[in-house]
Amino acid sequence: MPWRWHDASVTVTAWVLLGAAAVLIGLAKTALGGLGSIAIAIFATVLPAKESTGAILLLLVVGDVVAAWHYRGDADRALLRRLIPAVVPGLLLGVAFLAVVDDVVLRRSIGGLLLAMAALQLWLKVRAPSSTSAVASSRAAGVVTGAASGFATMTANAAGPVMTLYLVAQGIDKRRFLGTGALFYLGVNLCKVPLSAGLGLLGGDTVVRTALLAPLVLLGTWAGVHLVRRLSQTRFEQAVLAATVVSAVALVVR
Questions:
Q1: Hey, where are the domains in the chain?
Q2: Residues 77, 121, 45: CA angle, nearest 5 degrees
Q3: CA distance 37 to 79
Q4: Which of 117, 146, 163, 170 has the fewest CB atoms within 10 Å of its CB?
């Protein structure tokens, strides 16, 4: 169902879906990261796939700013230092990929990527915690996660599942999880803005759409802050992984 500003019957449905996605983005940023991928699936359904990557980017930045501020004292900068050096090559590879693929290939790539990340996270949960932690804390794991996050976020705004895998494997508490992710996503998404603009993905319609949907992102961030306070550490990890699995399936079966 492509987006049509001039088609009233489509516009109403599209706004309802995009509004729901905006709330999910806010929830994802301050509570359950996997919900962000459901929002990606909604945007990729309503809009052409390439346009959807630019349309959702500015809304993600809105949520990132709120989350980074709220969890500003909880980020693990040592973990971030392992990831950052490999992010830029991943971003550049993503730019090259976006420049040569069409909407169909991109949509299938988004779905396949999310499903693969969900499968990895389920595999992670059945591994022995000690061996998983040892692998996750290695320098190689940081490099792979950084590069994969850069590519995934540039092509599909889907760094969330990659980071969820990495951070859950670290065995860190939920506030440290959210604070580290918030600072990482904010930095990466701000870097993507000029790259996306250069690819022609941030047109005037996208800016207007962002301004209209931003209040719903803020509503979602507020709800997420209150939700995460009610979740135990175990329930938090289970909910994050379950949300990612649902989001992966939602896009693949589209």
A1: 8-252
A2: 95
A3: 23
A4: 170
pTM (2 d.p.): 0.79
CA–CA distance, 15 with 197 (Å, rounded to integer): 23
Q: What is the pLDDT along the chain (254 residues), one digit of tens a residue?
A: 444 444 443 478 888 999 999 999 999 899 887 788 788 878 878 887 777 878 889 999 999 999 999 998 898 888 888 888 888 888 888 888 877 877 667 666 766 766 776 676 667 666 645 544 544 556 676 777 788 878 877 777 777 777 777 787 777 888 988 999 899 889 888 988 888 888 888 888 888 888 999 999 999 999 999 999 998 888 887 887 777 677 666 656 65
Phi-psi region of 173 (alpha: psi -120 to 50; beta: other; left: phi over 0): beta
DSSP H helices, the chain, are 8-30, 35-46, 49-70, 77-100, 103-126, 129-136, 139-156, 159-170, 174-198, 204-230, 233-252
